[in-house]
Amino acid sequence: MSKQILVLPGDGIGPEIIAEAVKVLQAASEKYDLKVELEYDELGGAAYDKYGTPLADETLERARRADAVLLGAVGGPKWDTIDPALRPERGLLKIRSQLELFANLRPALLYPQLAEASTLKPEVVAGLDILIVRELTGGIYFGQPRERRVLDNGERQAYDTLPYSESEIRRIAVVGFDLARLRNRKVCSVDKANVLASSQLWREVVEEVAKDYPDVELSHMYVDNAAMQLVRAPKQFDVIITDNMFGDILSDQASMLTGSIGMLPSASLNQRNQGMYEPSHGSAPDIAGQGIANPLATILSASMMLRYTFSEAAAADAIEQAVSRVLDQGLRTGDIMAAGCQKVSTAEMGDAVVAALKNL
Ligand code: NAI
Ligand code: MG
């Protein structure tokens, strides 16, 4: 059966990096004899410009019908002044919640070839391989009520709500423990249980889930300490499970351990293993249109798609190996450039990965 993929290039560097990921996906499909059908649509600012909304109903329907979505990134200064309810990022939050993509997998893996690109000492990050499992459809980004109001004394006030239900915590914890079994069997659950009621429930439910995984070592850490430990001794972590906002922040932080956010892929999965795959970074308006963005995060996201939604581990491994070969060849986009390497454009990087893939 053919694999149906909805491609949403998005805004800023989105179309540039997506073009390269599609090239690589098609090359991998040819090599491994996979039937892949691509359909294109818009999300974010591009969708606002075309449909007047950052996520059109037809687009959402296409996404529901697809097995997987490949996304570039959304947002940019062009849409900063529009109605907040129609901002590009709203479209992204909506597609995540409508497809119930509750499990966000963000690997932070240091390619040995890039040890110099990290801002941390090589001995601190060498061999780094962390997987952050972030809850994506609950917590404070979606909690109601959220309101902005003017108090009787004339002062402006605004508040958000951080709710988590048992079932939401349980299902993300299960994903984390299952993935830990495929890795080094260590889970660190990150919360703020010394202060927040939602975190106290989080910890309780994670403990319950852990009973089904006696072979996996569980630890708990407060998020402020986790932020510190991630830069002090990041290699102590294997799988981190955490809530939506903590995961958002910690995964950006973890990305810098690996040298550049331009290297970090992500997968967002639902219970049916349908997934949306996108780089961890945003639309990088500061470098959009120049052909210099690093496409590797998006290419590696396509690899995650083959691995998690389509269970094509060989093809997924091949893309990762091809990326590694290209780094061995000394090819670098600007964000990971180092002395003695050759600077290449977005498209040259994509072409090099395709060539390496064919030669594996
Ligand atoms: P950003 O991730 O777009 O950029 C941060 C910095 O990293 C910039 O200097 C950028 O040039 C650089 N960078 C990012 N990706 C790169 C790549 N592939 N190659 C080389 N350099 C890269 O974050 P920023 O600037 O905070 O946000 C820009 C826009 O993106 C905003 O509208 C924001 O809301 C949106 N955004 C969208 C996300 C998404 O679609 N998932 C996630 C994060 C931000
Ligand atoms: Mg973020």
Word description of this protein:
With 360 residues, the chain is of the alpha/beta class. It folds into 2 domains: 191 residues, Isopropylmalate Dehydrogenase (3-Layer(aba) Sandwich), CATH 3.40.718; 129 residues, Isopropylmalate Dehydrogenase (3-Layer(aba) Sandwich), CATH 3.40.718.10. Helix content is 41%, strand content 20%. The strands form 3 sheets. Strands 2-1-3-12-11-4-5-10-8-9 form a 10-stranded mixed beta sheet, with helices on both faces. Strands 6-7 form a two-stranded antiparallel sheet. The chain has a two-stranded parallel ribbon with strand order 13-14. Strand 1, helix 1 and strand 2 form a beta-alpha-beta unit. Helix 11 crosses helix 12. The radius of gyration is 20 Å and the shape is globular. 1,4-dihydronicotinamide adenine dinucleotide binds next to helix 4.
Strand-helix topology:
Blueprint: E1 3-10, H1 14-31, E2 36-40, H2 45-51, H3 57-65, E3 68-73, H4 88-98, E4 103-109, H5 122-125, E5 129-135, E6 147-150, E7 156-159, H6 166-181, E8 186-191, H7 197-210, E9 217-222, H8 223-232, E10 239-242, H9 244-257, E11 265-269, E12 275-279, H10 296-308, H11 313-328, E13 331-332, E14 342-343, H12 346-359
Parallel strand pairs: 1-2, 1-3, 3-12, 5-10, 8-9, 8-10, 13-14
Antiparallel strand pairs: 4-5, 4-11, 6-7, 11-12
Strand order of the largest sheet: 2-1-3-12-11-4-5-10-8-9
CATH class identity of the largest domain:
Alpha Beta
Largest sheet data: 10 strands, mixed
> Strand share of the residues?
15-25%
Overall shape: it is globular
Q: In the CATH hierarchy, what is the superfamily of the largest domain?
A: Isopropylmalate Dehydrogenase
The oligomeric state of the chains shown is single chain
Distance between the termini: 26 Å
What's the count of strands? 14
Number of helices: 12
Q: Helix content range of the residues, please?
A: 40-55%
User: What structural class should be given to the helix and strand makeup?
Assistant: alpha/beta
What value does the Rg take, in angstroms?
20 Å
Ligand inventory: 1,4-dihydronicotinamide adenine dinucleotide, magnesium ion
Can you write the helix and strand succession as a string?
EHEHHEHEHEEEHEHEHEHEEHHEEH
* CATH T-level topology of the largest domain: Isopropylmalate Dehydrogenase
- How many domains is the backbone divided into? 2
> Low-confidence parts, pLDDT < 50 over ≥5 residues?
none
Rounded mean pLDDT is 96
Binding site for substrate: 96, 106, 134, 224
Pathway: Amino-acid biosynthesis; L-leucine biosynthesis; L-leucine from 3-methyl-2-oxobutanoate: step 3/4
Binding site for Mg(2+): 224, 248, 252
Site (Important for catalysis): 141, 192
